[in-house]
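[agent] plan:
  1. take the single chain provided in the ticket
  2. run structure prediction with default settings
  3. attach structure tokens to the ticket
  4. add a short note for the reviewer (M.T.)
[agent] executing step 1
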Amino acid sequence: MPEWLELKFEGSAVVLIASGEGKCDVTISAMVGGAIKTEATLTVNAVKAQPAPGPIAPAPTPVNPVIGNVSDDVKAEIKPELAVTEGDPAAAAKKIGGALTAEQLTRNKDGNTIVEPEVAVKAANKLGALSSVTSKDVVALPVFTTPAIDAYKDKTIMISYEVLGSDLKAKKPADVKVLKILGAENGELFTYASAITKDMDKKFTVMKDDDSGTIFTGDIDGYTMYRLALFIKDGGKFDLDGKKDGAVADPTVILGAEKRAPSGGSGGCNAGLGVLALLLSLAALPLVYKRKK
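[agent] step 2 finished; step 3 output follows
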């Protein structure tokens, strides 16, 4: 059972935060002049600790991709592979075929090489995908390679990143903008796919952060982790190693407007109390809560 609970206002919602995992029964009351005007009792179960968006948010990290339930012909074409990151910008520059110099790359807080935000800004503004893109609008994914596998030659490689919802910078998966960096001032957007088919080169999709391979189609929650899956054909335009060798190399960024405050938690003890929040916002009542013993 969590040792403490905390209520926070997130926009129009009230978010209940617990110190740890476990089941907790809570009574929440709104009072005026000592009289209870509204009261609600709820049971919350913390299933997984959820990070909060902001400066301490985790950087996107490669995870094992899961293709899910697809036909055999799709499995024959799409090859899931764990991305391999590089901590040395000079070494990463060589692996991506010299499309960027070491000076146009940097390291993120996890020590992985990423594209310098200003390089992505120039590429995005030249492309015209978004108006007046600034460095605040850029979330850089670690530059990666995949191992050369003979059986994967001329196939489409699937790579996945674990990404916090607020870093996807969109309300819906179809609105996420993923930019492939092709050079110092050049880039092209990946195309959103709502299903995995044989023809996935230069496409992306958003999946649930589990091993089910389930494509996510709901509203993106800023506090929830998702898997961003990228698809790149070996030897194709988006494969910057320049060879048909069963491996791909990639520098990519997510683009968007400035981060918006998430609408509230998506589950567990980080649960938004929508109805109660509405009552409180209308009545402007102070909030008191107690945990049941």
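[agent] step 4 note for reviewer: The longest strand covers residues 35-46.
[agent] ticket updated
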